[in-house]
Amino acid sequence: MSLVVMKFGGSSVGDTERMKRVAKRIVAKKEEGHKVVVVVSAMGDTTDDLIDLAKSITDRPAAREMDMLLTTGEQVSVALLAMAIQELGTPAISYTGWQAGMITDEAHGRAKINDIKPKRIMESLEQGKIVIVAGFQGISDDGEITTLGRGGSDTTAVAIAAAIQADLCEIYTDVDGVYSTDPRIVKHARKLDAISYDEMLELANLGAAILHPRAVEYAKQYNVKLVVRSSFTNAEGTLVKEEAAMEQGIVVRGIAYDKNVARISIQGVKDEPGILAAVFTALAEAGIDVDIIVQSGISNGTADFSFTVHLEDAERAKSVIEGIRDRVEFEKVTSETDLVKVSIVGAGMVSNPGVAAKMFDVISKQGVNIKMVSTSEIKISCVIDVTHLTEVILALHSAFDLDTNQTAFVGGPKERR
Amino acid sequence: MSLVVMKFGGSSVGDTERMKRVAKRIVAKKEEGHKVVVVVSAMGDTTDDLIDLAKSITDRPAAREMDMLLTTGEQVSVALLAMAIQELGTPAISYTGWQAGMITDEAHGRAKINDIKPKRIMESLEQGKIVIVAGFQGISDDGEITTLGRGGSDTTAVAIAAAIQADLCEIYTDVDGVYSTDPRIVKHARKLDAISYDEMLELANLGAAILHPRAVEYAKQYNVKLVVRSSFTNAEGTLVKEEAAMEQGIVVRGIAYDKNVARISIQGVKDEPGILAAVFTALAEAGIDVDIIVQSGISNGTADFSFTVHLEDAERAKSVIEGIRDRVEFEKVTSETDLVKVSIVGAGMVSNPGVAAKMFDVISKQGVNIKMVSTSEIKISCVIDVTHLTEVILALHSAFDLDTNQTAFVGGPKERR
Asked: Does B58 contact A86 at a Cβ distance shorter than 8 Å?
């Protein structure tokens, strides 16, 4: 008998019919002889509906009250799912985040888990019950209701799996696993059997939507064995686990892309110490995340440099730069959109020199200009014009043997909580 | 500066526009110099919608899970109301039942308040905040979420008022006070300035819907000064207070009626000891409340008797009686509907003999047959055919000087929680 955590996202429990299907799946798992803890998100569009309700009252709701409001969504889900399981004749009990012992800090809307006290979960498991925990929520030491922010329910599931030393944490979602690349672009993209935490983390950070990076980090930190699988089919899904356990010899496991990229260029910056620090401090204070940074040639004592931000932050980033003209001398600031960041990811890359060169070569042979580059130990990203996305991904997929090998991409509609 | 508890029912916060109006009213109260605690119900039809959701999953939801489900309704209300008040520039904070320290027993769906620990309420008041508490809900010693059942939010408001020694507990509802009788029947029915706890309790128990009997009992027990007033107008409302403080000399304060009455008659019951006990024990075990009981003449060693039950329980009551034929010998059991119970209520009645006789006389003079009678120290009820309701109430209203005096009736659409 093993101890399994099953996490179902909002679309998996979008209405009561789907909830009944999920209940059957959960009961079947228990009848296989496992102890089962379920983590569930708010039903379908509930969270968005609640946000709309708040917006009809105020444009600037207090984060504390938003947490009070939004956590009701998961509470409704756990109660209904408990009823659906009980209706099948199987004992079940629902818990809110605070009842389940999810202790967080006080950062409303983006709280971090400080501790888990799974006493009630364990007691209910001992009583033979299926335990259903509201995802995304916790309680601070002061008794305030908090939410974990984006990816919260994934994180809840992984954190509970770690706390109760579960044998497996299954993330049920609306895609049936991790693919070598987006199947909408490459029809012969392949579903992976397995992927390492680090690879999954890079893919998640690159905007792939199945698993939130925080949840993957947590899983890696506590060595929680994860499976990503569909809540609508019985397909096997993709196992996320330690690198050491992975098959060897695969350089590139998957290709991801992110269209939400804008390039900001600052031209004619006076080349003085502290200039870069001034620029990026100002952006950080405005809450704008900067990704790739490239400094180009210096001439006549001035430099040009450029960086990428999220598409939505492009105009604001320009305003921030314009706003520090008193501290930073520069000629002009411009922004460029209609870009895409294409990334190849693979743990094998670190020991294979020439992977970057090969990527650049493949892209160049398509007649496509690479505008920016960034690399990490297991990832290389190139920013190109979005018009070339399909041809570049097809070429890379083939060049790195992904048409035949086991490879990785996470795509499909987002299910964040 | 006084300390005031304001309670708003579901229809008062039926949508976000109404909620904004309620927020203004609350802020105005604070700006008059009072400390304010607000108790609020779930918005409009929220509770019914949640019940429908549960019913779409199971016909027999566990009471614990229903509490988990339904308490989200009030949680949404308190969060939104806090936002609406904050939007007006006034500090506010929302609390769930458990955060507000509403400690109850474990009886899910009909929990009783065991204790209130208003530490957080008092702290927030000291910080100059308007405190908003979710009505209808609490927490058991084991950390289980409970609901107080019918009249729950009224009870929450009164219980908090008692615990924090508030100067006043205002119940805002969709009628503007307590009337001498139903204004839909008697156009010149008058709004009362004041009514005693006991009178209010009788009226509430007679099906009048503004205040739940439990809340009135609680108010009486802890001597909480209550005001019933409209959330839509600035009319003064009706004060509910101690009898000693009431004006003297008024015999009948109000007239109430209840159409949800059925009469069950058992004929030809063998007149043996223990028969009545057997019948009413069986009904109690089936959860059927019995109101008026009348035993009629005994002949040939058999007796007839009849009693009233809630209209909805009539068929079930008959089945229960049929089901004890092995223990109780009787000829037949019948039920009668299309009845109404008309009651006159007044604390002055107890010291005025002849009030009952006068009531019977007034009804008889209308040519109406009285089918059953019951009396208490401050109430006399007669069951008659519902077809005569209007003429009987008009005649009583006039005969007991209610057309001119201060009198009492609570009517209008129900707002239970």
From this structure: yes
Mean pLDDT computed over B99-112: 94
| Residue A415 pLDDT > 70 | no
| Residue among B250, B280, B286, B409 nearest B343 (CA) | B409
Say whether residue B61 is in contact with chain A using an 8 A CB cutoff: yes
Q: Does A16 touch chain B (CB under 8 A)?
A: yes
Under the phi-then-psi rule, with left for phi > 0, alpha for psi from -120 to 50, and beta for the rest, what region is B269?
Answer: beta
Cβ-defined contact of A83 to B65 (cutoff 8 Å): yes
pLDDT score, position B152: 86
| Average pLDDT of the residues of chain A | 89
Taking the alpha carbons of A42, A46, A50, A51 in that order, is the dihedral positive or negative? positive
Query: Distance (Å) from the C-alpha of residue A95 to the closest C-alpha of chain B?
Result: 8
Distance from CA of A254 to the nearest CA of B (A): 41
Confidence check: pLDDT of A412 > 70? no
pLDDT digits 0-9 by tens, A308-350: 999 999 999 999 999 998 888 899 999 999 999 999 998 877 7
What pLDDT was estimated at residue B181? 86
Give me the percent of chain B exceeding a pLDDT of 90: 59
3-state helix, strand, coil in chain B (%, to 5): 35, 25, 35
pLDDT of residue A411: 39
Contacts of B298 (CB under 8 A, 6+ apart): B271
Query: Which of A19, A21, A38, A65 is the best mutation test for B, with the most CBs of B within 10 A?
Result: A65
Residues making up the annotated binding site of A for substrate are 47, 74
* Band (B417; pLDDT cuts 50, 70, 90): very low
Helices (H), B175-311: 197-205, 213-222, 275-285
> Is B387 marked as a binding-site residue?
no
A89 touches chain B (CB under 8 A): no
Q: B18, B43, B74, B76: best mutation site toward chain A, by most A Cβ within 10 Å?
A: B76
Chain A residue numbers touching B82 (CB-CB < 8 A): 62, 65, 68
Nearest to B75 among A54, A57, A72 (CB): A72
pLDDT 10s digits, B225-236: 999 999 888 888
In chain B, where the domains are located: 3-173, 261-336
The reply to whether residue A76 touches residue B69, judged by beta carbons under 8 angstroms, is yes
Identity of the residue in A56, A69, A99 whose CB atom sits nearest the CB atom of B76: A69
Q: Which contacts qualify for A314-322: CB closer than 8 Å, 24 or more apart?
A: A314/A262, A314/A264, A316/A286, A316/A288, A317/A262, A317/A264, A317/A283, A317/A286, A317/A288, A318/A264, A320/A282, A320/A283, A320/A286, A320/A288, A321/A264, A321/A266, A321/A279, A321/A282, A321/A283
Short-list A196, A183, A186, CA closest to A252: A196
Q: Are strands B3-8 and B35-40 parallel, antiparallel or unpaired?
A: parallel
Q: DSSP secondary structure string, A123-162?
A: HHHHTTPEEEEETTEEE-TTS-EEE--TTHHHHHHHHHHH
Q: Find how far residue B23's CA is from the centre of its chain.
A: 26
Q: Which chain B residue is nearest to residue A49, measuring alpha carbons?
A: B76
Size of interface A-B (CB pairs under 8 A): 105
Q: Which fold has domain A3-173?
A: Carbamate kinase (3.40.1160)
Gap from B72 CA to chain A (nearest CA, Å): 5
Q: At what angle do helices B63-87 and A63-87 cross, to 10 degrees?
A: 160
B261-336 topology per CATH: Alpha-Beta Plaits (3.30.70)
Distance CA B39, CA A255 (A): 54
Which residues from B are below 8 Å from A120, CB to CB?
143
